[in-house]
Amino acid sequence: SKAPVSVIGLGDMGRALAGALLAAGHPTTVWNRSADKADELVARGAVRAASAEEALLASPLTLVCLLDYDTNRAVLEPAVGALRGRALVNLTNGTPDEAREAEKWAAGAGADYLDGGIMAIPATVGTPGAFVLYSGAERHFAAHRETLEALGAAKYLGADAGIAPLYDLALLSAMDMMFAGFFHSVAMATSHEEGSAGGFTELLVPWLTSMTQVMPAFAADVDADLDADPNGPAAGAGPALAQGLDVVLAGTQNMLRAARDAGVRADFFERAVAELEERAADGVTEYTGPETVRRLRTRRS
Ligand code: NDP
């Protein structure tokens, strides 16, 4: 028989999590501030807890999925006694530092803690495309892995509780900038009287799809650069992927001018051109992954 699980927080995501656990056959206890959000789950077999404390006491493992970490604390603090000897998996989105702080708080309450980042939307939770990132002590992950797999593929990233939220927010950052790029390009394409968002997007999707294939090679260059011993013998051939900086700069200037001419905001390209000009002024002649990442960092950890 499947392990009992409790879910605290039945917003859009919490309801999807509880629904996936029920579908996988886990005895599921649920609690939410607005109790009516549990109705449908209760109809499917979930047990409604009268308080967060009752939810924690009902299962060895509780998932928390609320608005933010302050809300987590406000909900869990009054029930802190119920955490002792139990496991808490926090699936509320927050920063790495918040996760590390929450782990300390949970340890102080005698609870095992994992932090998680859900790479899914409510509709895809529990389906093959969904995955969830986890960090915290590996033995806690191992102990609950089978249960967590009901939500989506469970990917363990490391012992530092902060790494799952770091990767989560980095993945969301890439998505955000991709959508920003998408809307920027649609604004440009539709500035033309014969342009249409739909027709343009038919070209954009295969273009972006093929461009994502370049990322692993860039990533390999970045990793090789990170691994290189700055005091050791000169690194071999250097980055495998390199383009003349002058060509990249000229192309970026064209993107800036074309956006302006089309009556589309071009702030991003103003900054991109300025940053590439800085590289040129520093004597850099090639556009590479490691150099690009280095220049994004405001400090080296
Ligand atoms: P919702 O807005 O649907 O749900 C918010 C939840 O927080 C509800 O359970 C709400 O309770 C509760 N809440 C808010 N304030 C308080 C409070 N002061 N006291 C007690 N409970 C409170 O958000 P989601 O379910 O969509 O998101 C939850 C988390 O999941 C977020 O961290 C989000 O980033 C993350 N997530 C969401 C995804 C999505 O696509 N939706 C994707 C990946 C992650 P009540 O019902 O009583 O208002």
TrEMBL record:
Pfam families: NAD_binding_2 (PF03446), RedAm-like_C (PF21761). SUPFAM superfamilies: NAD(P)-binding Rossmann-fold domains. Coiled coil: none annotated. Residues 160-283 form the NADPH-dependent reductive aminase-like C-terminal domain. Residues 5-154 form the 6-phosphogluconate dehydrogenase NADP-binding domain. GO terms for molecular function: NADP binding. This is NAD(P)-dependent oxidoreductase.
